[in-house]
Amino acid sequence: MKRSPANIALRWSGRILVSAILLFVLLPGIVVAVTAFNDRAILAFPPQAWSLRWFWRAFSYSDFGRGFWNGLTVTLWASSIALVIGAAFAIAIHRYNFVLKSLLEGILLSPLIIPHYTIGLGVLILASQAGTGRGFPLVILTHVLLVLPFVMRSTFISLENLDSRLELAASSLGATPGRILLTVTIPLLLPGLLSGWLFAAILSFNEFTATLFVSSQATQTLPVAMYNYVREFADPTLAALSVIYIAVTALLLSFANAFLGLGKILNVDAH
Amino acid sequence: MLMHTDRTAATAGSEAGRQGQPAVQLDGVTKRYGESIALHEAWLKIRPAEFMTLLGPSGCGKTTLLNLVAGFLEADGGEIFIEGTLVTETPAHQREIGIVFQNYALFPHMSVANNIAYGLKTRGIGRKEIARRVDEALALVRLDGFSDRKPRQLSGGQQQRVALARALVIKPKVLLLDEPFSALDKNLRGSMQVELKQIQRELGVTTIFVTHDQGEALSMSDRIAVMSAGRIRQIAAPGDVYCRPADRFVASFVGNVNVLTGRLVERRGEAATVSVGKMRLEVPAAPLAKLAVGDDVDVFIRPEHLAVTPGTAPGSLRGTVTTQVFQGDHIDLYIEIAGVARAPVLLRAPGIAALSSCPAGAEVGLIVGSDDVVAFPPEARES
User: How far A158 CA lies from chain B's nearest CA (Å)?
Assistant: First the structure.
């Protein structure tokens, strides 16, 4: 390629554009991370003096600790229940032809198009009509609805990649349908099921909008606790919490990558 | 047509009468997919220990038939019997059938030993007995020492042997083979065919083999069912399918064949005489039943049944060599015969003498050196 001035200008403007985009992607994270170390009790950038005290506050503020454990409880239950229901429906829809099959599929995937606040509000109205309190079952139920489509999609993809002849071979060898499911289908779907579960768990743990409607003081998750905090205080505790969150997530993901193979879990190269 | 050939073949084999009950029997089995008919009233009786091949192009219904016998599909009509028991409604896992798929379908998450043991475990056989029979099966397919490997660590040929061992270890009533050789390279294919045939004969297991490869079908089968467009066109021993094809589809699908235009000259009982140019040939009369003397017929002649004759022998055809192709052990000659054949006729001349005696452009005489010539009504006439 000739190094004409126009060419050079084009190349440099390309580099600048890419750098600008990358900077834009990272900027919020960087600003928040730097703010977390600000000594003063305001969310100001750049900081004048440095301190770690907001990290201490993030750990010691009891609502956050409770929110973390609440969120973890909701996440584990919701993504596990969604996994069982979603995988079962996905297998049924993939395998069998029945009346209103596409309608069923549409209903199960509909949380993708219904806004989260609509789902939260709807569940809340139903719960108050039924007279049930805003306990954990309600939050978990809401999260199951929200993450179901993702588990189903992930199972669908794995099912598409599953060679049906493996199941036929198993049945010719005398295995009953139940035995085929346990010894062939589920073991081979496992990477897809795990990736669906992981995806659901991440979504559920971060979910805020719907949870705000259906949770109470006793059941509020970490994002809701953070929201309530920022309404009262304007100090860098949330920034410190963000840094902790990013660090823990990065640690978990590199662990998953090293020991389980992230590509496999996230279905990047399924088969 | 099909019932006719089947009966002829059944009474011809003297052992068939004695053995009585067929291993597999299909009585008018039909399978439809919506409007299209995948299999139209298949009638088939397979004898115990027989190697039966279903041969036909893709979409002819051979795999549908196999899946119906396996119980993977439900028939829309007709009945299926295995060893005399009605199994039309029996689910696949109760049919006691072994199957080897084209891609082998080995369980990728299990070791070779666990793949083979799978069918034994479903039968609730004891641990020691399973170990003994798995070893036995591995020895049968000459894979001793491979029991701890995973399928992906094996070559194509080895995977196929595991699939075969897995299917045979349960002592199936019928072994089904769905194009098992098509994924193997050519050299391996030949040796696997010999090995499979040997194992099949040794164990005496009734086998249904699906293939589109006529060479495979001719070399391995006891009998062949030639299929096309959802129908069984002919059921007969390989030699009969090759030399006495039941219709023009079978004649052109199995082996190479030249189609020459001729005329029906005379018909008496089982045989008829047709003329091709000055040449007169004896053919079976049955396929020509609807024709009148003097009507046009298509005459089917195999390349190796034609011979070059020096000079102008009486009753020979005359043609011009257009191309000669040296094939090592024989020479392929393409000969143009005006007014009789639309395309150049292929002649298979043994040895290498024809290389110099029949150069391109040479005029040669042709004679037919075999009785195995058949004639059918021209294409438009056949229903």
Answer: 15
